Each structure stands twice: as C-alpha cells, then as structure tokens.
UniProtKB/TrEMBL annotation, chain A:
Coiled coil: none annotated. It holds the Pfam family BPD_transp_1. Residues 90-274 form the ABC transmembrane type-1 domain. This is Peptide ABC transporter permease. Signal peptide: none annotated. One of its GO terms (cellular component) is plasma membrane. It comes from Glutamicibacter uratoxydans (Arthrobacter uratoxydans).
From TrEMBL, chain B:
One of its GO terms (cellular component) is plasma membrane. The chain crosses the membrane at residues 66-93, 100-123, 143-164, 176-199, 241-263, 283-302. The keyword Transferase does not apply. GO terms for biological process: transmembrane transport. Keywords: Cell membrane, Membrane, Transmembrane, Transmembrane helix, Transport. The keyword Transmembrane applies. InterPro entries: BPD_transp_1_N, MetI-like, MetI-like_sf. It is a multi-pass membrane protein. Residues 96-302 form the ABC transmembrane type-1 domain. It is found in: Cell membrane. It comes from Glutamicibacter uratoxydans. Pfam families: BPD_transp_1, BPD_transp_1_N. This is ABC transporter permease.
Length: 293, 319
C-alpha cells in the first residue's frame, strides 16, 4: 500500500473509532436484541392505530361471550376481542417505563456525579440517603406509594423513577470517581471552569459507557415493574387494555382459552429479553473500549 | 479489627432501619381520611369512632404515635388491621413463616446450584456448557418474575402438561409445608428468578480468580487441579458472590410478592397485595418494615461474610 493511500485512509479511521453504538451492533447478540425490541415496539406503537379496521373491534368493545374462540385469538374474560386488546395494550406500558427510566437516570446521574465530585461530607450524606432508599425493594416501595396516593399513572412513573435513582447514582458515582482524578479535570480546574461545567463537559462524556448500560438495565427493570404492578391490579386500571392487566384478567381460563395470557406474556418476554440482550452487548462493547484505548 | 468493623456496620444498619421506619410512618400520615372511620365504616356512630380513636391513640401528637408504633414493632404489637378488625401481628405471624419457608427452600436450592453451575461454566470457558449456561441465564435474568411463573404454569400445570397444582390451597390453620406438591411451582419460579445472577457473578469471579497468581502458583507447585479449585480458587470467589447472593435474597423479598400473588401462596407478599388493594395502612406499614428489616439483616450478614473471608483484613487484625 502506498504512503499516500495510508494518509488518505487515516482520518476516516479516526472518525469511526470509539463509536459505542457501532461496536455494540457489530455483535450478533445485539442484532437479535435490537430485532426483538423493535418487533414489540412496532406492535405497541402501531397496534392502537390499526385497531378498529384490522380486527373489527376496539379494545373495550364486547364482541361475544367470555372465553370463546371467536375472532383470531378468541375473547377474554368479559367477551372482548383478545387480539384487539393485545394490540392496544403495549403503548402505555412502554411510555410509563420510558418516563420512569428517564426520571431515574436524570436524578441518579446528577446525584451520582455531585456525590463523586463534592467533598466527603456531602458525598457521605448522599450515599447514606441512598442506603435508606435501597433498603426497601422497589416493588414494595411502589406499593407503599400506591397505598397512599392511589393507583395513578403519575404515581407509578414517579415512584419507579425515584427508586431507580439511588441505584443509578451508585453506578454513576463509581464511574465518575475514576474520571475525576484524571489530569484534564485538574487542568479545567486550574482554568477556573465552573464545577457544573466540568461535570457536564468533561466528566459526563467520559462515563457514557457505563451509563448506557445502566440505561438499558433500568429500562428492562422498568418494563418488568410496570407490567408487574398492572398484573397485581395496582397499575393500569380496567377497562384499559394493558398486557400486565390482561394476564391477570385471563389467567383463570388458561386451560380453555390460553391466548389471552400467552400473547401478552410473549410480548413482555420478547421485549425484556430484547432490551437485556442489547444491554449486555452494550456492556461488552463499552468494556472493550475501556480496555482497548 | 474485624469485630470493630462488624460493630460499626451493625450501628449503620440500625440507623438505616430507623430512617426507613420514619419514612414508612410518615408516608402513611399523608393519607387522607380517618383510620378509625376506615375500620368502622360509614355508618359508625360518633361515640364508637371516638372510642376507637382513643384506643388507637389517634388523638396524640404524631411523635408520640410514631414512638408507640416503633415500640410496638419490638413488642410484637403492630396495630389493628382496618380490613379485618383483627390484630396485625396475628394476621402476619403464620404468613411470615410461610414466606420464610418459600424463601429458605428456594435459597437452599438456588445458592449451591448457582455456585456449582457458575464454577463449572468458568472452568469450561467458551465451551458448549458455558455458552448454554450464559445464554440461558441472560434470558432468565431479563424476564419479570411473573412472566416466568405464568410460563411455568402454562407448561407444567395447565395448557401443556398437567402435572402440578398451580395454586396453593392449604386449609386455613394448616401449614403450607404439609402440601409439598403445591410448593414446587412457587419455589421453582423463585429459583429461576434468582439463580441467573448467582451463576453470572460466580462465573465472572471464578474467571478472575483462575487467572490470578496464586492459582498459577498452586498449579506450578504441583497441587492436583481438583484441589486447586476447591482449596484455592472457590474460597476466594465466595466473598464477592456472597454480596450478590445477599442482594438477590433481599430482592427475593420484593419479587416474592408477585410470585405469592400469582400462586395464591399464603405468605406476607399476598398479604401485602391484599392490604394495598384494601388500603389497609397498618398492615402495609408492618409488612414494609419487616421486609426492610430482612433486607438490612441479610446485607449485614453478607458484609460480615465478606469481611471474614477477606484475607487482607485477617492479616491486618494480626498485625
């Protein structure tokens, strides 16, 4: 290869190098995960749009007697079309999970970075506060909040987000603590860059790897929690169509009419497996980056 | 040195529990409405309401009520259930033992199996068994617990094979462990929920330990491979794994709520779901604080295991 060609090639290579997402998607496991996630995402997003004309009924309309096999996947416990309810049941679950994850990440990242970069006293205080929040399992905490405030959407989102925060903060703090001793941080400090700016422009971009992994993990858990709470009857309330709620409504007829349970269980399972495969690949890719460079 | 560290850890744990109890108590103070009214219903006369308020000390200032409640936890007096009118302690005592049985059986199965599978996986790194174990545990770890439970019910109890009962139906007053067949599915679900984390942690730690200098040294001086693993490698891997096992056990206490509800298992999880549905505040408070206490105790034990198995701390104490 000639020297000129080498020179020409170099800038292109440099541009490509540390892209975390590309490194992730190069793995087969990540491709499977992405495909599974997108499949369920498509059902949840476009299902409600397709409703009256694709199945001939809305998700709350009564189409026949309970637990019969009329229609593509039969009817549910009140005689509503299972397929219509299935198509309509994923959107809220996804929106709630995404919002809860967003709140948790935002709070957790801010708390974690502040704890890592501030003095020992504030750090200790924040982490002790974390220990308290960590002592109640997230689901139990959510149930406590629901007892007090009632089973409303914003309660679900808020309580799952808030209980994510200490867990995210722990990861952020330990990732940021490793970055903060670097020379470029000290250099910025010498130039009297404001602390919030150092955190935002120097620390945050250098901990995106672990944070992306944490984001994936929290999303998987959020989906599980929202679905579980709906399954327990404390999340989405009837007559709303929701996958968790559907499982609860139809599980008594698992022998006669299994579709009312199988469809939502499959959707939740495929979704969480998909997001977790993606997360795992992200973790591998970000670990490789840290080792390689 | 070690005993002082353990003592300090104990004090921290007690402090955490105290703050959690404040949190749980004040969360429920926010609740609108009158607990006495909730217990007696809309038709209660003013006299009876006043009498019950007096009996429940609702007229006292909040800090007296908090202290009374906190004292009640230690003496086993947890208040009165709004839904049944009976004492919370009586309602919960049987259910606590039922839940403990479930957790203990699941733990006794999941911990050794997880450790063995994880170790074997690490020894056969990147071979067939390792790939299968890693893949299966990745999938299991992503599934919410009720999804695993529903799939097991569909497979083993209803739609595909009809081998096992899908609900627990011990007559009231009889212990759940008199019906071992009914315990199988809830236990299996719990085991499958917990085990992937133990396998993954054990595998990762073992890989690290097997690459370490002292394992190489042991091999070089001619210690048989079996002994290298059982005497040199596994003991060093157990410390970090104890932490994960503890977090998992504590987490089981949360996940067990959903599993008990799914199988109608008469434990505290089912009681918590009922209490939340009925807005039975006293019961929710009591169960929350019990679960938090369990979590703190388990974590404390794990830290103690970590401290005792950590050879660095051992030498410091000798010095």
């Amino acid at each position: 290869m000639s020297a000129a060609a080498e020179v020409l090639e170099r800038p292109a290579k440099l541009e490509k190098k540390p892209n975390l997402l590309m490194r992730t998607l190069r793995q087969k496991q990540a491709k499977i995960g992405l495909a599974l996630t997108l499949l369920v995402l498509a059902i949840a997003l476009f299902g409600p749009l397709a409703l009256p004309w694709l199945t001939g009924s809305t998700s709350t309309e009564f189409t026949g007697r309970p637990f019969t096999s009329t229609g593509l996947f039969g009817t549910d416990n009140l005689g509503r079309d299972v397929f219509s309810r299935f198509l309509d049941g994923g959107l809220k679950l996804l929106v709630y999970s995404a919002l809860a994850t967003g709140i948790g990440m935002l709070l957790g990242v801010v708390l974690g970075m502040v704890a890592a970069y501030s003095g020992r006293r504030l750090d200790g205080l924040l982490m002790r506060g974390n220990d308290v929040l960590l002592a109640l399992p997230q689901l139990v905490f959510a149930m406590l909040a629901i007892t007090v405030l009632g089973p409303q959407g914003w309660v679900l989102v808020l309580v799952i987000g808030v209980t994510h925060a200490p867990r995210v903060a722990r990861v952020t703090r330990s990732a940021a603590a490793a970055v903060i001793t670097e020379d470029y941080i000290r250099a910025s400090e010498m130039y009297a860059v404001p602390r919030w700016k150092i955190l935002l422009t120097e620390v945050l971009p250098n901990i995106t790897g672990p944070l992306m992994v944490e984001l994936g993990l929290r999303m998987t858990y959020s989906i599980g929690f929202v679905a579980a709470l709906s399954f327990l009857g404390m999340g989405m309330q009837p007559p709303n169509a929701d996958w968790g709620l559907m499982i609860n409504e139809n599980r008594i007829a698992l022998v006669v009419q299994p579709w009312g349970v199988i469809l939502p269980v499959l959707a939740i399972a495929v979704l969480t497996v998909g997001t977790n495969l993606l997360t795992d690949s992200l973790a591998r890719a970000s670990a490789n980056i840290n080792v390689g460079n | 040195m070690i005993s002082r560290m353990i003592l300090r850890r104990l004090v921290v744990s007690l402090g955490i529990l105290l703050v959690v109890s404040l949190l749980v108590f004040f969360a429920t103070l926010l609740l609108p409405g009158d607990p006495a009214q909730a217990i007696l219903g809309q038709q209660a006369t003013e006299d009876r309401l006043a009498a019950l308020r007096e009996q429940m000390n609702l007229n006292d200032p909040w800090w007296q009520r908090y202290l009374a409640w906190l004292g009640g936890i230690f003496t086993g007096n947890l208040g009165i259930s709004a839904a049944t009118g009976g004492s919370v302690a009586a309602l919960l005592s049987e259910r606590i033992s039922a839940s403990l049985v479930l957790l203990a059986v699941a733990g006794v199965i999941a911990i050794p199996v997880g450790i063995i599978v994880g170790t074997y996986s690490a020894l056969r790194r990147d071979r067939g068994f390792d790939r299968a174990a890693t893949g299966v545990s990745l999938v299991l770890a992503s599934l919410p617990e009720f999804v695993i439970g529903v799939v097991l019910i569909a497979l083993l109890s209803t739609t595909v094979f009809k081998l096992l009962p899908s609900v627990t139906m011990a007559p009231p007053g009889e212990a759940v462990w008199n019906y071992p067949l009914q315990l199988v599915l809830p236990t299996l679900t719990l085991v499958l929920v917990v085990i992937p984390y133990i396998i993954r942690m054990m595998r990762a730690t073992m890989l690290e330990v097997l690459d370490s200098g002292y394992v190489e040294m042991a091999r070089l001086k001619g210690v048989p491979e079996r002994q290298v693993i059982t005497r040199h490698a596994i003991p060093h891997a157990l410390g970090p794994v104890a932490q994960v096992v503890a977090i998992q056990l504590a987490w089981m206490a949360g996940g067990v709520v959903v599993i008990e509800f799914l199988f109608r298992y008469p434990g505290i999880g089912q009681a918590l779901v009922d209490a939340v549905t009925n807005r039975d505040v006293q019961v929710v408070q009591a169960i929350s604080i019990i679960i938090a206490a369990a979590y703190v105790v388990v974590n404390l034990l794990a830290d103690v295991v970590g401290m005792v198995t950590n050879p660095k701390l051992r030498t410091e104490s000798a010095a």
